[in-house]
Every structure is written in C-alpha cells, then in structure tokens.
Amino acid sequence: MPLTPGIHHLTPTVPVHVFDAPKPGPTALIQAGIHGDEIAGVHALCELLEEEIRPDCGRLIVIPVMNAPAYRVQQRSSKGGLDLNRCFPGDSGASARELRLARKFMDLVEDERPGLMATLHESKKRYDPLLPLPSFGQTLVYGVEPMPAILGRTLDRLNARFTGVNEHWDPHYFPVATSSTEVIVEAIGCVGICVETWMGFALEHRIAMHRAVVEILLAEFGVRALKNK
Ligand SMILES: [Zn+2]
To answer: Is 160 helix (H, G, I), strand (E, B) or coil?
Structure first.
C-alpha cells in the first residue's frame, strides 16, 4: 500500500517525507546519506525540506538521510557496519542493520513504484575517464543502458548553470550490482540516477549543486516547476 502524505519512518532516525500535489502526476523519490561521509546531499535535502519544497503534480518522496548512524560519525559506513549501498535488495531476517534497512527501503519502493529514483552521493576523485580506476566527481551515474533521456537533459541544464573550472557535469555508465540504483531499476523499471558531486569544492558549493540537480531533475520529470532558473 502506498503511504499516506506526511512523515513516516523506516527506522526511528530515518524519516520519509511524503508530499502529494493537488494535481495528479508521477512519483519521484530522492534520497541522500547512504554513505555517511557524503554530506552535501543530506544538507541539500534538509534545506529543501525546511523551505517546504512541494510537488506541483504527483507525489514527491524525500529521505534526507538513509544511513543515520554512518552520517553521525561522518564515515562511509557506521562503526563496524556494512556499506549500505552494497546491501540491496536487503534481507528482513538478517542480523546486520544495513540489510534490514535496505529491505525496508525496497518494500517502500515496491509499494510506491516511483518513476524516478535519485540517490545523492559525493566523490573525492574528480571524474576523468582516462584514470585507471573509476572516478565519479561531477557525474550523473546510471547503471542500466540505455542512458535515460532525462539524464541528458538534466546535464545540459547543469552545464548551462555551472561553468567554472572543474564544474562540468558528465554522464557516467557504471553498474554496481548490489547498489540501490540498479536493484531498484531492475525491480520496478524506473529511471535510477546516482548524483556525484566532487569534494574538491567547498561544502556550501556542493550543497548548492545538489540542490540544483534535485530541482532540475524534478522539473524535467514533471513533478515540480523550476523556481530558480
Ligand atoms: Zn556514495
């Protein structure tokens, strides 16, 4: 059953904000803080919630911090915990907290069946396709080909707005089998996008970029008009 509008919880410290627009439309789900040391997306979603972001059409679901214990210690995973983004689709009977949380999130996604699911991350390495190891900073990552059309349109708008040195955004095809993005795309056939800012920028700028990505994605997806063009 889909959730009623309001604030629900996956766990006591993982709230799920559900907003319905007066007009019907698609469902978008935005989440951050799967990795506790990637904080800009968490702050961006908290700011948007404090500013009372609402959908114009359809439903908007926001989970500002997926892995609260990891976020509190500002580490990728909580103390002695698993990498939450390698725990999907999860297991409700597991002893590991992360596997149970991943399963709760999957249940939510299967009930809500969002058409768009975005997860906000950060990376220490600036994206460079020539590097021997993968790098992600300033990319929109997708794990299932072909590249979603909304991803290209969002990149165009981001690159019109962010034109400074190293600010350029690129698409990045990089499947990770047990990540939230792929498992969810496979389970419900939605568009799944992983947003990665580069941590070489100051926190405030990274927060501004995450806000811009979220606002542009929601506009391109048809849930909310763009307020700051
Ligand atoms: Zn991450």
So the answer is: helix
* Residue 170: burial class (beta carbons within 10 Å; 0-12, 13-18, 19+): middle
**Residue 36 Cα to ligand 1 middle (Å):** 8
- Separation of CA 219 and ligand 1 centre (Å): 24
The answer to whether residues 151 and 182 touch, using CB atoms and an 8 Å cutoff, is no
Q: How far is the CA of 127 from the centre of ligand 1 (A)?
A: 14
Going from the Cα of 151 to the center of ligand 1, the distance in angstroms, rounded, reads 18
What is the per-residue pLDDT across 45-76, written as a single tens digit (0 to 9) for each? Answer: 999 999 999 999 999 999 999 999 999 999 99
CA distance 57 to 118: 18
Domains and CATH numbers, the chain: 6-221 (3.40.630.10)
Name, in order, each residue with C-beta under 8 angstroms of 12's C-beta and a sequence gap of 6 or more. Answer: none
The CA distance from 203 to 68, in Å, is 19
Q: Specify the pTM.
A: 0.97
Distance 187 CA to ligand 1 centre (A): 21
Ligand 1 centre and the CA of 23: distance in Å?
34
List, for residues 75-133, the tens digit of each pLDDT value: 999 999 999 999 999 999 999 999 999 999 999 999 999 999 999 999 999 999 999 99
